[in-house]
């Protein structure tokens, strides 16, 4: 994960550590190298500029120049700033409600259905009663896919293959959940290959009518700045509660993970790191920063 970025940052620190006496010029050059590494990792330009300005300010303000181990102190400062960029603290995920409704949104292929299965699996392992709901009314294959995943993780899947009204299906699923003692309903929705008005209207209506406990936006982290732009568009329409970053296992750059929080101002709540049902984790900004810095 993020090997490309980690390698470049490591190189920047190595250059600094290799200098005999550290001067303000050395620090400035290292910070510039860090900025270049972030931009080539597809971090939003303004985000990269702001964060490296802060790193430089901190480095000079916190006496990196006279510290015993200037390289280490700079790594610490960069770690703190990357953590802040990704939201600082781990975000809460609310599953209170009777039932709690978790609405899953995002483009087709982003990993919504896979994530729905993983989230159900994670919650089930915590002893929660979960119902998965297939609301992709356009792709019958999506219903089958969710059924397969539901079976795999041992969670019931609610579907009405003949019904073309997503809201009706979701409302029926909630009724079914109440009748069968399920406390969390995960609603997997239809996505398109690109943002379009009809999809946006549909998901907007679902959100308005269902008033979900959590609305999550799922996005493929490998798409870098496209992921950030799509998140922005969805957030303007949906005002979602959190982001799910998928396919981090294949992302060598990390641009989406590092920019999305600052640009969209919504927390990353989950990360997905593979196709298997247990490849899901809560998102910890500090752990991610440490991982990037190796
Ligand atoms: P949806 O159209 O948004 O529901 O997307 P899917 O859940 O069908 O996922 C699209 C493809 O991405 C599938 O082949 C999944 O197996 C794959 N996928 C989903 N999440 C991950 C992940 O975290 N890592 C990897 N490597 N593949 C993933």
Topology readout:
Blueprint (H helix, E strand, L loop, with lengths): L2 H15 L6 H17 L4 H17 L8 H16 L14 E7 L5 H14 L4 E6 L4 H14 L2 E3 L7 H15 L3 E6 L7 H14 L3 E7 L3 H15 L3 E5 L8 H10 L3 E5 L7 E3 L2 H9 L1
Parallel strand pairs: 1-4, 1-5, 2-3, 2-4, 5-6, 6-7
Antiparallel strand pairs: 7-8
Helix pairs in contact: 1-2, 1-4, 2-3, 3-4, 4-11, 5-6, 7-8, 9-10
The protein binds guanosine-5'-diphosphate.
Number of strands: 8
> SSE string, helix = H, strand = E?
HHHHEHEHEHEHEHEHEEH
Between the first and last Cα atoms, what is the distance in angstroms? 11 Å
Write down the overall geometry.
elongated
Name the ligand types: guanosine-5'-diphosphate
Percentage of residues in helical conformation: 40-55%
Oligomerization = single chain
Alpha carbon gyration radius: 21 Å
Strand order of the biggest β-sheet: 3-2-4-1-5-6-7-8
SS field, number of helical segments: 11
Stretches with pLDDT under 50, minimum 5 residues: none
Catalytic activity: GTP + H2O = GDP + phosphate + H(+)
Keywords: Cytoplasm, GTP-binding, Hydrolase, Nucleotide-binding, Ribonucleoprotein, RNA-binding, Signal recognition particle
Protein name: Signal recognition particle protein
Binding site for GTP: 106-113, 188-192, 246-249
């Amino acid at each position: 994960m993020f090997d490309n970025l980690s390698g470049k940052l490591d190189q920047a620190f190595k250059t600094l550590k290799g200098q005999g006496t550290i001067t303000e010029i050395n620090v400035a050059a290292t910070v510039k190298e860090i900025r270049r590494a972030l931009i080539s990792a597809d971090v939003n330009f303004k985000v990269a500029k702001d964060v490296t300005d802060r790193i430089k300010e901190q480095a000079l303000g916190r006496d990196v120049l006279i510290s015993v181990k200037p390289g280490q102190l700079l790594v610490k400062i960069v770690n703190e700033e990357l953590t802040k960029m990704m939201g600082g603290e781990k975000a809460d995920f609310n599953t209170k409600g009777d039932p709690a409704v978790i609405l899953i949104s995002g483009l087709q292929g982003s990993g919504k259905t896979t994530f729905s299965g993983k989230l159900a699996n994670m919650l089930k392992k915590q002893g929660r009663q979960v119902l998965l709901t297939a609301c992709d009314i356009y792709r019958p294959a999506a219903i089958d896919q969710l059924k397969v995943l539901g079976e795999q993780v041992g969670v019931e899947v609610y579907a009405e293959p003949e019904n073309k009204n997503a809201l009706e299906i979701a409302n029926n699923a909630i009724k079914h959940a109440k009748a069968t003692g399920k406390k969390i309903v995960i609603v997997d929705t239809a996505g398109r290959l690109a943002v379009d008005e009809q999809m946006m209207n549909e998901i907007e209506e679902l959100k308005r009518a269902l008033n979900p406990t959590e609305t999550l936006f799922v996005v493929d982290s490998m798409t870098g700045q496209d992921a950030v732009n799509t998140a922005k568009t969805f957030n303007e329409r949906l005002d979602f509660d959190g982001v799910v970053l998928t396919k981090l296992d294949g992302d060598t750059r990390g641009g989406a993970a590092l920019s999305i929080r600052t640009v969209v101002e919504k927390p990353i709540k989950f990360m997905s790191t593979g196709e298997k049902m247990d490849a899901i984790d809560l998102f910890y900004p500090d752990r991610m920063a440490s991982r990037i810095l190796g």
